[in-house]
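Troubleshooting: if your tokenizer reports a length mismatch, compare your output against this known-good record of 261 residues.
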Amino acid sequence: MPTTKKIITKEYGIIGHPLGHSYSPTFFNEKFAEKGIKSQYLAFDIDSIEKFPAIVKEHPLIRGFNVTIPYKQAIMPYLDEIDPNAKAIGAVNVVKVEQRDGKPYLIGYNTDWYGFTRSLTPHLKPWHNQALVLGTGGASKAITYALQQLGISYKLASRTPKDDQFSYQDFTQETMDDYTIIINTTPVGTFPHTRECPNIPYELVNEKHLVYDLIYNPVRTLFLQQAEMKRATTCNGWPMFVYQALRSYQIWEGVKWTHEF
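Known-good structure output:
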């Protein structure tokens, strides 16, 4: 018997490069199937942000995008409007596509800070009041914004630090005792490079540390494994991914989804 072709009424997608690690298409398409929604979610792996306008033009059904590495900042000049939170962060990871006067009107948002806040808060203890943020890219901007909202002071750390930033080599015993939250916002350790991790002194990590990795593929990065060996509390990026994804759909369609962990 001939199969009935699925009628698609709306499209969404993710912009980034590379996208082999992204779970977004699977997550959203499974949600659409589960809820009987006639939509599909596509992966747009582009090697230049200059190709973004063509994607919008070639996909008249598109209603929204997620944006990942390395385009969270580069996409901003291509947008018609930017939400105040995203503007304050300086990075966009969600784009809503509206039609105004017969033309696409693109609005940028940031849901990373929301997802991070929701996933971090349950793990916080009274002594978790200072954070080391590994990485200085677009993802770190959302994390530092969230930390500010939570009243947690922070210090950025990089392999090539600028003024008022730590080098990984600056992590002394005193530093690690003072900064009891350590957050990896870099892609180091993402599949398939699972044997890599940020080069910090793991021997100085202890049970008072909360160690957070934005990476969710693999579930337990080498970064988290090393911290677990020192009895630190750990959290991977999966809850953050889910919370920011649910908020993305709420922005696109005004529909609030929930998810059970």
